[in-house]
Design brief:
heterodimer, A: 418 residues, mainly alpha, two-stranded antiparallel sheet, 4 strands, 62% helix, B: 184 residues, alpha+beta, Rieske Iron-sulfur Protein, 2 domains, three-stranded antiparallel beta sheet, 4 helices, 9 strands
Chain lengths: 418, 184
Amino acid sequence: MSGIQTLEPETKWGRFQNWVDDRLPIFTFMRHSLEEYPTPKNLSYWWNFGSLAGVCLVVMMLSGIFLAMYYTPHSQHAFESVDRIMRDVNHGWLLRYIHMNGASMFFIVVYLHMFRGLYYGSYKSPRELLWILGVVILLLMMATAFMGYVLPWGQMSFWGATVITKLVASFFPGLENGILQLLWGDFSVSNATLNRFFSLHYLLPFVIVGVVILHLVALHKHGSNNPLGIDLKNPKEKIPFHPYYTIKDFFGLGVFFLVFLSIVFYAPEFFNEPDNYIPANPMVTPPHIVPEWYFLPFYAIVRSIPWRWGGIFLMFASILILFVLPWLDRSKVRSGTFRPIFKISFWIFLANCCVLGYMGALPTDGHTFGLPNILISQIATFYYFFHFLGVLPLLAKYEKTLPLPTSLGTPALGAKNV
Amino acid sequence: MLMKREIDPTEKIQETKRDFLYLTTAAMGAVAAGAAIWPFIDSMNPAADVLALSTTEIDISQIAVGQAITAMWRGSPVFIRRRTEEEIKIARAVDIKTLPDPEKDEDRTKKDKDEWLVLVGVCTHLGCVPGNKASDSKGDFGGWLCPCHGSHYDTSGRIRKGPAPHNLAIPPYQFTNEKTLLIG
């Protein structure tokens, strides 16, 4: 495969490629990183979610660019312009439903991608920076999604913007009012706020593209981790990305679009709050404010702490702690397959995140299974941090891991999950 | 698998089959890509509310003979001129073979409505609006003069002198009753 280019090309296209390549090595780059790129031969379908996230980003940017051709970022016109997109613009309903549900799909894909990394220890040496860049992407995504949700200027948009900006400002006690006015450009969430959110909502995806490129550069330095989590020393344990993983990624893409478009066409409002179809009204707050589902676990954390500053601190910390994860879990063994206790703790952690998400959607003064929601939220918040600060460091020290296979060809006894 | 193929006598058939699979896959991919791209491209076309505004009704009962008004249709000016007998006569007397864009005045008006001339008021040169007010110059031929590059139009809105290549366009219109003109 690598020998082809050294021969004198027979076709005009081949000679043209060589001419360009000699001046701008774009074809060499594409061949190295998309075609020949050596990839572990044992990757499972859990490794599909990286490329799927990339596809989500492209889908979101494309649908967003076309929506922006009709959207009006003005507090008097925004709601109506969205309504017009839904009713009058050719295929506007499709563009908007793709963009709206695409945001949810993007988070589903990215969360699965992250949990994959958590289970198989993909954040461990030498991939710490790869992981950190991923967390940066997550933060940028959250900011972008939040500001995008404000743009339709419905009731949830307006009150979401109010609550989140107040939350950010109250992180700085004593400076709250100054910071709020700085964020709002006014004395309340207003037209100025809407305008800057639109500007940033359009900008940030391009920043994400930049960080994604860095993420890929970092990935290609050492290549993908794999389900066994072992370093592959023998080149025969790797196969070229094309056609083996292009075809696998395309298959996954087909399944993904089947799910995504089923929602777009048959349940387009599944993830949406009906209150957002009421135009923003600064005089009336909707009775039950909840953020989009992908923020619910963090929302549960902030609500569980009766001390406001503490809740906000923990909410930010719950994401920022991911930055130092590679140094909290110092176990030499990457894959959960060979870590019997870690494996259990992983599933408990995942379930705990779901509990937090569920609690985030419920009113704080209610009860679930006879327990007050606030207490459940507090326990789950405690466990979230205990997993990172207690379980992982202790396991790294005391867990007895299973023997690792030396290569993909000779799996160790007991490793069924290959 | 590979070893077997090297000695496979049916290799030619195999390749034909593979070519067929490649081609059908590529064709299906192209159709899918086209179907996916179309809604995005089509969204840039005029929206339903824009199309709904593509007709304009104008009350013409107040226009005196010799007077012209400017109406708006699809975001562009439309000149509605109630011509004098004299102006109609001049417009019909011209030998159309001498015109840059030969067209009979009879073809530019509705039958039995000779006095009404309805034109899209956009110069066919580069899109400026010729003067249509009573005080504006009517050019060398008693019609319109475009201020941008000096195109002269006659009393039938035909180009007579200057850089414009075509006569002023006639929008689709009809007289819905004695008083009302419907453009579009």
